Amino acid sequence: MGLVEVARGAWPEAEGDVQLPVLAGFVMSSFSPLVAEAARRCLGRAHGEPPVAAGRGARTAVIISSATGDAVTAAEVARAVDAGRRLGPLLFFQAVPNAVAGYVAARWELGGPVVSLSPAGGADPVAESLAEGLAMASLLIRDGDADEALIVVAEQALTDGEHDRALAVLVRNSEVN
After folding, report:
1. Sign (positive/negative) of CA torsion 67, 73, 75, 78?
2. Could you tell me which of 96, 177, 104, 169 has the C-alpha nearest to residue 136?
């Protein structure tokens, strides 16, 4: 069974992509807004405005794949623990990628499985994360757990000169019309 791409979206896509939209309930870090914006662009191209039609949305999986995860939140949590400071509840909530995956699923009414992956990284973490996401999507679709899968790959800038980037791809079984 092969997969066919239904739609895709990314951040950034154009020179004007400088500031990510604010995502209510997520603070300090660009990771969750990055995932949500790439997903919005992809799903918007496939379905227009949310929600996805019930028949399709109920069988659409959400897969978040990132070699580094939310590095900014992880660093802030580590600083708070090292300093003996109390950690704010929003940081605890957003410390796992499933939080933003759940946000995307709820916003677009996607009822399929939600999966977070963290591939080893490498020379091109976006390509590696996408390959892992596609492999998981293929497994979920082949096993009958979903008809479609939204794969969102997100990598935050970790060094000067880098930029946050995300890619969202909606795929389905190539044998289904």
Report:
1. negative
2. 169
The pLDDT tens digits for 14-46 are 888 888 888 877 767 888 899 999 999 999 999
Please provide the DSSP assignment of 2-35 as one string.
-EEEEEEEEES-STT--SPPP-TT--S-SHHHHH
What's the whole-number mean pLDDT along residues 65-73? Answer: 80
Q: Do the beta carbons of residue 142 and residue 1 sit within 8 Å?
A: yes
Domains in the chain: ranges and CATH: 3-173 (3.40.47.10)
> 3-class secondary structure for 139-161?
HHHHCCCCCEEEEEEEECCCCCC
DSSP helix/strand/coil, 117: strand
State the CB neighbour count (10 A cutoff) for residue 105. Answer: 21
